[in-house]
Amino acid sequence: MRKRKNGSSIKHPNLSDAEAKPQKKSPYSSKDVFLTCLGFRMLNALLIQTYFNPDEHWQALEVAHRIAFGYGHLTWEWEEGIRSYLHPMMFALFYKLLALLRLDIPCVMIKAPRLLQSIFSAVGDLYLYKLSFVLFGDGVAKWALFSQLANWFMFFCFNRTFSNSLETTLTLVGLYYWPSVRSSLNKAPSGSRKWGLALAALACAIRPTSAVTWVYVGLLELYLTHDRLRFIFVELIPIGSVVLGITCLLDRLMYDSWVLVPLNFLKFNFLSSGGDYYGTHKWHWYFTQGFTVMVFTFLPFCVAGIIKSKYWKLSGLILWVLGLYSILGHKEFRFVLPVLPISLIFAGYSLAALEERGSRNGEKKRSSCICNKWPSRKQLAIFFLLASNIPMALYMSLIHQRGTEDAMNYLSKEAAKGKVKSIVFLMPCHATPYFSTLHNNLPMRFLDCAPSKGMPTESDRFMMDPVSFAVDFAKNWSHPSHIVLFDSEERHLKDFLVSHSFREVRRFFHAHFKVDRDLQASVVVYADT
């Protein structure tokens, strides 16, 4: 509910008087909401069995495994100092706990990290509900949570061990505590801005690009607050300095030298466009493809919710983030994950408006004794959203690109039995998990793809001519016990594999359609005979 200049009240469009008024207490306790979300997210974590992006393993779990167990591969980003150890350290401590309890066995090491992430995801779900409640009331909050849990991309991505996933949780929690995000009728508790600042600083320490979100929120706070000097000098600078100092000390300990990660990250990704090495998209990609695919069939409900609610603070944040990320050449779905739940809050607003409209129509029909056997608009909307998102979520989480994970899970179990001595991956770099899944300190070799100033990398040369590369590569290798490759390269290398005494031992389904290369329908494991 908003107020006119003369003090009279204006309801949020299409919401009842009860929903438009600021509510002091939710009908559902935070504990109940959290436990419900936790149960859902833990099941969600167990159902994710596919490979999405290398960073899930190579920039989080692989680094954590090296910290906890003394072996694991560090990619070139860690040599350049553009990654902070803050996020991997969380998983490293978890790995240490598993080892202490003697639970560091293959099946646990494979599932446990995503189960840990499910706890953070459930916290994000809870604060999405709480944020929606303080902004729009329970009628919107419950439908915002429904949208969050039903959206296919949140199901597919939120429980993965990306830094973006934790950034999304911190964003939702942080927004709840920022006074500038709330309406004048639902003022934040005293001191909550300090919590909001601390969470914003932590999000930026974990992922420096999170500053895109918090610059918008900070400028909004600066414009609306009456104590600007206190905000800047008593809260912003001291809290930001403490978080930055702790992060720098941790990185100093792990890098064994002073490294200012945010500065290095800024230089590489913004000033030198280093991220463009991994591919670029048109400036409009987030608007026409990336973010629209993430929102999926919730899109019309999000747009309707934005228009009906007229809550421009949050809709402006979505546009701000998408707009600034569009300037960068290199774009990925997960980069804008933190604003997806905010869009789903507006979808919840739209669904709540449908429910309110349906309840009013129902009362009119009951009063006139008219019985309607047709489903209501709300029921049709729910059916449409579930029927379109559930198959997509399950297909992407259980089927599409699962072969590389299945192959490493198999090799992990075989290695635990002593049947694997060494592995070579003749496939594009970082196509599979690595030591964090194998959990066995065996010699392994993948094809390097670190930026090389115009020169083709090992991975590039292999993809251009698999046979010539493999022949040259074999001249200097220590004969491995196993080779892993995609079927698209296997057909070129069959004679090479036979001539070097390898035979196929397992074949794992990978994908029905190609993504950015030729169709990689299956992953094949060969063993030395």
From TrEMBL:
EC assignment: 2.4.1.-
Bilayer-spanning residue ranges: 152-177, 197-217, 229-250, 284-304, 311-329, 335-354, 380-398
Recorded superkingdom: Eukaryota
Keywords: Endoplasmic reticulum, Glycosyltransferase, Membrane, Transferase, Transmembrane, Transmembrane helix
GO MF term (any one): alpha-1,2-mannosyltransferase activity
UniProt family annotation: Belongs to the glycosyltransferase 22 family.
Protein name: Mannosyltransferase
